[in-house]
Amino acid sequence: MIFVKGLQNIPSNLKNPSITIGNFDGVHLGHQALFKKTIECAKAQDGHSIAITFHPHPTRVLRPEIPLKLICDLEQKIEWIEEQGIDILICIPFTKDFAATSATNFVKNILVERLKVSNLIVGYDYSFGRNREGNINFLKAQGALYNFQVHVVAPVVVGSLIVSSTLIRELVSEGKVATACKMLGRPFELKGEVIEGARRGGPILGFPTANILVKEDQLCPKVGVYAVFVKIENKEYEGVLNIGYNPTFGGQQLSAEVHIFDFSQDIYGKTIRIKLIKRLRAEKKFSSPKALIEQIQKDILDAKTALSNFLKSGKPL
Asked: In sequence order, which residues have a C-beta less than 8 Å from that of residue 59 and are 6 or more positions away?
């Protein structure tokens, strides 16, 4: 996949472009349906499949007072879109000036004149442009005017719920990572740098942990204990993650600590990715370190069961 930052860097040799547009936070099943249709349209015309996204997220520019916590960062988004098979990903820097672009000018100046769009693929609820003035009916009229096809992709439903980035953020915040996994088509990931911790895990409890720096703008699951896979460089390990405040030791600051099974490497300073499979229990205060150790031993057994079931059936029973 070719990654293009900024409209000024768009290649000039695009062929019959089929284009989809969105923020694509999480690259969930709904987004994947858009990419699949985009690639299908491109192949039908022997053309390029193109996705257009924005960075930073428009909400962070237009409504900075809203504490929007995203499912993934730009690096993860690029990686997951590439996995879908898109030919070209264009990332447009989102500014207040760009937000003032009218829907008419966006279509004429960017989609038609600069990209020479052949097919435009959008979701059922898509809107864009200044004050979100461009909707699907508008796009269809523009398509008739400029001779491009508009394809509308229906919502993707899991159970009785329509998949959306907003819903996935809510599920993760509530600790419902197993349901979020179904909507993402992959486990939710907590990504972070391994930092120096309180050093209680190994010396005091006998279970060494890697402490992860959780950034303020990062989507963080509900406090508790989770069964996880841990990706370090190109290898994956099983583990159990605690997100919380360490009440047994009087902790006051939110921390994320993962005990990685059968692992003893020094990974301070490395960025690791933790895939959350199942929330095992809520965080609680124990009467003594001994009681906490007994609970951790149980957590490890429960985590191994959940991870084994996930590998066998895709469900962390």
From this structure: 66, 68
Residue 17 and residue 141 share a domain: yes
Q: Mean per-residue pLDDT for 190-212?
A: 75
Beta strands in the chain (DSSP E): 2-5, 18-21, 49-55, 88-93, 119-123, 149-153, 157-158, 161-162, 188-195, 210-212, 224-232, 235-244, 255-260, 271-281
Same domain, 13 and 75: yes
Considering the domain architecture, whether residues 241 and 287 belong to the same structural domain is answered as: yes
Say whether pLDDT at 66 is over 90. no
Question: Which of the residue ranges 20-34, 203-217, 261-275 has the most confident prediction, judged by mean pLDDT?
Answer: 20-34
Task: Verify that 8 and 141 share a domain, yes or no.
Answer: yes
Secondary structure of residue 143 in the 3-state scheme? helix
CATH number for the domain that contains residue 21: 3.40.50.620
Q: What is the tally of structural domains in the chain? A: 2
Q: Could you list the residue range(s) of the whole structural domain that residue 253 is in?
A: 188-313
Q: How far apart are the first and last CA of the chain?
A: 37
Q: Do 128 and 36 form a contact (C-beta atoms < 8 A)?
A: no
- Integer Cα distance of 131 and 133 in angstroms: 5
163: in domain? no
CA pair distance 175, 188, nearest whole angstrom: 11
- 272 near 209, Cβ under 8 Å? no
Residue 166 lies in a domain: no
The alpha helices in the chain, defined as continuous H runs, are 29-44, 58-62, 74-84, 96-99, 103-105, 136-146, 165-173, 177-184, 289-313
